[in-house]
Amino acid sequence: MRSGNAGPVITSVVVAYALGTSLVAAAVLLVGDSTALGTILLFGPRWMLVYPWLLLVPLALVVSRQTVMVALFGTGVALFLAGGFEMPFRTPSRMSNAAIGGAEGAQPLRVVTYNTDGSRVLASRIASDVRAWNAEIILLQDCSQESADALLRTIVSRGGPAPYEMHRDVEFCLLSRIPLRGVVSKARLRGSRADGRAVRFAFDWNGTPVSMATVHLPSPRDALGAARHGDLSLLEESIATRYAASRATADWVREGAAGTALVVAGDFNLPAESPALRDHWGPLRNAFSEAAWGFGHTMFAGPHRARIDHVLVSDDVLVRKIEVLSGYPTEHQPVVANLGIVPAEK
Prior knowledge:
This protein is of the alpha+beta class. The protein has two domains: 4-82, no CATH class; 97-341, 4-Layer Sandwich (Deoxyribonuclease I, Chain A), CATH 3.60.10.10. The protein has twelve helices and 14 strands. It has a six-stranded mixed β-sheet with strand order 3-4-2-1-14-13. Strands 5-6-7-8-12-9 form a six-stranded mixed β-sheet. The longest helix is centred in the first third of the chain and has 25 residues, at 7-31.
């Protein structure tokens, strides 16, 4: 490896960028929801930190092995810790082999969650989208009146080989092929969106009781928009509101789930690296982190891309497959998960 007089310069740049990337990752993972800087970094375009390494790694190759090792370390930090890239190597460690086998052999439960952003345009195509998803449970957040009316006209009334029943509650549209019981709304109990909104329901899947909830937690959009113009005053209030809403909603969701498999899906407005997501929802597993490849961005606003729409599952739920769809006329994109439910013991 020879680099001439440029070697020390390249090494310095590689080391400095690796250190900077590591500091960003540490801030995101440790204080992402509790400080203004951490929140800005958490919702910033962190995935772009990977691109400089496409140049720095080849440059390091002509300097020294030590520089290459630093460059590869920095690439890993930028990709996995700061950028949130996932690889399907995690396993539900607390699930026994027998339980995994039972869940794999059972009929899959297909679930779709989608924040439709209140889109009126979506109403013209939502019926065909629902048919294409071909899911047992479809959970729509920010479901506009136009979309709800279109669903009632074309899905519920016409039915088909597997007609849906539909529940609409404030901003949620819930479609199910499975008879539901105990549909309860946190929106009615708690009030405003600042408190976090959720709907909880239960059903039996192949004789096994399942609890499910869809959530929509408060967004930091307004506070981050003000911060981009130099006003940080809204961030502190947003941090406190969002943290409290996440904790209260997580507690409420778990209230009715004792003794059942649990699935929670929706717009958490918390990236996968969020400390609040770990603190409040940590007993549940993140389906995308466990079974998918890639960044898995579900919300696109220019360079600001984030995975804030999640499917979380308890230890008696196996994640067979999960993917983020694309091509929808909204900032958010649908998430589709195929799940396996551990059969109840006879």
